[in-house]
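Design a sequence for this backbone.
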């Protein structure tokens, strides 16, 4: 049996090696390493795929969030509401810009930000909401958009884990994750569903003015070369990474199908074990399974993880410490117990390997190893 990894990037690469190698070689031959044709080509392809007017490539997903907030003109002291159950980057950029992160709890079933909690957290200082489309499916964007419209707030979607997912509105219409609010952000970190072979990110918007502002922000605040009208940063997606992403974008829906196939295998294997709650697949969004995350009940999660390691099955905890309990983000406004769902999830969730390249033999070994622990 092939070695099991959380994400098998090498096997994925070998399937598209000729396409990837040709794309990289084309960039090397052209020597257009920064903002070259490969970047422009990938940008256009991603705009078409997402059905969005503007994609602004940048250096990573964290920069995408920061640039978004800079372009919206948020000022120190402005409050930005986000979830406490997410990777640190979501709150990190809020704090770095001198804004005030306002944390709220998540929904018990989807693990995504709770719209009811969001509305309760709004104050006169609130300027934006950052929903995180966690683990591969969208937050309740229709409810959040109604709240944002009512209170005149911006929405910046953190779609780093859900690129390619569809949000389904009540009228049956669909939009891609990251294209519903004023701005959407994604990361192309190698382990993402659409990942490059280094760092990379992108920002999406349908607003012409915002797009123009963000293009300036990522390029040192320039609109005309050597004329700096605003404070900016240096955040670029290099041409080699763009060439890789251009190839992989053509396979993104296929990758999502393969991830769902693996998730189906897990769901079927665990359906009769009440100690494990399999991921909810909400009918308002497709699920692209960036992670396959189980909610454990009445078992020792650490012991399960150790048992899986002994069987050469990696398993990860996303996320063991909520943002409001992280040392760097301790705040007198929040204390342990304030976000019961988030805190419960941090204590009970565990993620199994999830990759486009998981074969039946690997999936059977993973599931039988989990079941062996449950039945001993």
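Sequence:
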């Amino acid at each position: 049996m092939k070695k099991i990894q959380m994400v098998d990037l090498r096997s994925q690469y070998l399937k598209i090696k000729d396409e990837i190698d040709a794309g990289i070689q084309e960039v090397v031959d052209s020597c257009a390493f920064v903002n070259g044709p490969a970047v422009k080509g990938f940008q256009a392809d991603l705009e078409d795929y997402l059905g969005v007017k503007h994609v602004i490539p940048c250096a990573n997903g964290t920069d995408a969030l920061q640039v978004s907030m800079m372009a919206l003109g948020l000022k120190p002291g402005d409050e930005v509401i986000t979830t406490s159950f997410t990777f640190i980057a979501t709150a990190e950029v809020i704090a770095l810009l001198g804004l005030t992160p306002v944390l709220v709890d998540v929904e018990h079933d989807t693990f995504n930000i709770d719209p009811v909690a969001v509305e309760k957290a709004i104050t006169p200082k609130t300027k934006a909401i950052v929903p995180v489309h966690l683990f591969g499916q969208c937050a309740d964007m229709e409810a959040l958009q109604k709240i944002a419209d009512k209170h005149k707030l911006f929405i910046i979607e953190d779609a780093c884990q859900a690129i390619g997912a569809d949000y389904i509105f009540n009228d049956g219409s669909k939009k891609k994750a990251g294209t519903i609010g004023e701005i959407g952000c994604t990361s192309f970190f190698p382990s993402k569903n659409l990942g490059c072979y280094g760092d990379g990110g992108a920002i999406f918007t349908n607003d012409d003015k915002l797009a123009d502002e963000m293009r300036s922000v990522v390029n040192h605040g320039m609109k005309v070369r050597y004329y700096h009208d605003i404070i900016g940063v240096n955040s670029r997606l290099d041409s080699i990474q763009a060439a890789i992403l251009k190839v992989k974008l053509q396979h993104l829906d296929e990758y999502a199908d393969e991830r769902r196939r693996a998730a189906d295998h897990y769901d079927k294997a665990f359906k009769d074990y009440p100690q494990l709650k399999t991921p909810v697949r909400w009918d308002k969004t497709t699920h692209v399974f960036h992670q396959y995350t189980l909610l454990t009940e009445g078992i020792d999660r650490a012991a399960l993880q150790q048992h899986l390691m002994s069987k050469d099955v990696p398993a990860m905890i996303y996320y063991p410490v909520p943002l409001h309990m992280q040392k760097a983000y301790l705040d007198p406004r929040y204390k342990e117990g304030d976000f019961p769902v988030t805190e419960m999830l941090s204590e009970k969730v565990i993620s199994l390997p999830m990759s486009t390249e998981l074969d039946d033999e690997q999936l059977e070994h993973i599931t039988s190893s989990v079941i062996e622990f449950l039945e001993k």
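The CA atoms of residues 63 and 235 lie 7 Å apart.
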